[in-house]
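Morning F.,

Quick status update on the modeling queue. The single chain you submitted on Monday has been processed. Sequence for confirmation:
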Amino acid sequence: MTDSALRELADDPSSRKRFFKMMGGAGAVSAFGVLLAACGDDDKKDTASTPAAADDDAKQKDDGAKGDIAILNYALTLEFLEAEFYAKVIDSGIVKDKKVAAIATKFGETEQEHVDALKATIKKLGGKPVSAPKTKFEETIDKGLMTVLETAADVENLGAAAYLGAAGRIKNKDVLAAALSIHSVEARHAAALNQLLGRGFGGKGGLKGTLPDGAFAKGMDEASVLAAVKPFLA
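Structure tokens below.
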């Protein structure tokens, strides 16, 4: 975790204080401790100031920004996928129950807000947002409401797992705070859908994505997440 935002927050009390205030106080303190433990803890780097070290710091900062943009574009691809899925489901009219339809509509609106926020952040960092992928949800919708709900739960679980899996690689503290705030919402979406399906909150009953392991959830690496959503990409 060398040079990541989590490492800097662990080492710098002033940065940590600003971060916790931005994330909402005591809850963030607990979440940060879990993340730091989950992501591992490398030895602290030598902080001696020399011209060569300054050049290295500048290069690392530039590389860090590029790395954060790549992670954000990865997240944006997933958010595009989720927003499109809910839009397709609502347009299909397959959800007849008004309460379930309201949940799907709200979740879809939230995912679109994530899309807009990620695109704005990528541009702010000097990057170019990826284009929305072409999707193929028709087969899933044609299989009926239960398959639609199961797919929604799977996708939300994968979204939460993706953010958790990427957290330790993020360099910019503001980007990390944004990613954790979205991760929290994705996890809540997943929990609501898992409960609706009778899956509960553990790793049983077909639950895919971020499988809670006792008190801690498991992140997923990018390759595994993209492989899991590949069937939905045209």
